[in-house]
Write a structure and sequence with these properties.
The chain is mainly β. Helix content is about 5%, strand content about 45%. Strand 12 and strand 13 form a beta hairpin. The protein starts with 5 loop residues before the first strand and ends with a strand.
Length: about 350
């Protein structure tokens, strides 16, 4: 646990084994179950927003009291918004605010097959993998009274002389009459997961040269994202007065509703060490797609499917290396003394070229 993070208990069970059906065909099967509840905020610095309640701000606590010593600004913020705050104990929610996702089943499957002898190998696999929760989102001081942000243009003195003792020049925290922004968490969330699969053929062309071609894909679901909640519909007039909840500024829930999809053809040609020389050439042709909440494209509840910002359709990587023929066991100076071997033996030159 830390000041800006949280803590939770995690455990898992799994069973996995290899079945060698024939001398040329092997299957790998497994099933994993994980239980990783959502983290609890450090000293209760975690909460949610329920607009249907007369006390819409719900702060994590095992009692009816909020831990106001967790942050410097908490007592001030609590005094301003106390009548709108209740604890998770009072609201009947868990200390983590979000109920755990108990459906984290993760199957595994793999196959290795040599259909034509030892020079050709067919491999494939599939698995589901669950993501861990990061500590810069829902457990990071996301709610009143632990986070209070305000902007003040202070011209109290003609020549301001700021010190830590009176940094705000007489304007106390909370004096701006702010409508705070909130970043609550949902009470029900699914764990982020990734499905990975691949299928490929590896062919030995010579005793030291191998060609491999693979189809690789993955699909991420319930990935970490955010959902704006308190934005007004387009119209004339002041924005704040037109918000669904005008007491508050922007409200953005931490969510798990982003998804991703990746498909790729990956080809690799590798020449292993022969006379001190090796090289590796690889080429990837791929597409990466992301689906996420995109208010700028159509409103708070608008989801956009588009190429990922990190999509790189084509990637070529070439690398080579050569062991210089000097030193013990090499063509030149193959019986060196200790000093000569230390100075001239064992050298290698390498080069890498990447084109995207």
């Amino acid at each position: 646990a830390n000041t800006f993070g949280g803590h939770a208990t995690y455990w898992h069970f799994f069973a996995q084994d290899d079945w060698k059906l024939t001398s040329r065909l092997t299957l790998n099967l497994g099933l994993r179950y994980e239980y990783s509840p959502w983290m609890q905020g450090y000293r209760g610095q975690l909460g949610t927003f329920d607009g249907t309640s007369p006390h819409p701000i719900i702060v994590a606590s095992n009692t009816d009291q909020v831990d106001l010593g967790a942050q410097f600004a908490a007592p001030t913020a609590y005094s301003l918004f106390q009548n709108q705050i209740q604890t998770s104990h009072q609201a009947g929610l868990p200390l983590s605010i979000t109920y755990p996702d108990k459906g984290q089943w993760a199957p595994r499957f793999g196959i290795a097959w040599r259909p034509f002898g030892d020079r050709t190998v067919v491999r494939g696999g599939y698995g589901i993998f669950y993501e861990t929760e990061n500590t810069d989102g829902r457990v990071n001081r996301n709610i009143i009274p632990f986070l209070l942000s305000e902007t003040v243009f202070n011209t109290a003195n003609t020549i301001p002389n700021r010190t830590l003792a009176n940094f705000f020049l007489g304007r106390p925290l909370g004096s701006a009459g702010v409508t705070p922004t909130l970043n609550p968490t949902y009470t029900h969330l699914r764990r982020g997961s990734d499905q990975h699969w691949n299928f490929g053929v590896q062919q030995q062309l010579a005793h030291d040269t191998v060609l491999e071609a693979d189809y690789v894909g993955n699909h991420g679901t319930h990935l970490n994202s955010t959902n704006p909640f308190n934005d007004p519909l387009p119209a004339s007039g002041a924005i704040q007065a037109r918000r669904p909840f005008p007491t508050w500024g922007g409200i953005s829930y931490f969510s798990q509703d982003m998804s991703s999809l990746y498909h790729a053809l990956q080809v690799k040609l590798e020449k292993r060490y022969s006379a001190g020389l090796w090289f590796l050439a690889s080429y990837t042709y791929s597409k990466s797609i992301t689906v996420q909440d995109t208010p700028a494209a159509g409103g708070d509840s608008y989801f956009e499917r588009a190429l990922s910002s990190y999509d790189i359709p084509q990637n070529v990587a070439l690398s080579t290396g050569y062991e210089l023929p000097f030193g013990k066991g090499k063509r030149f100076l193959n019986s060196p003394g200790r000093f000569t071997q230390a100075l001239l033996g064992g050298w290698q030159t390498q080069a890498i070229l990447i084109v995207r």
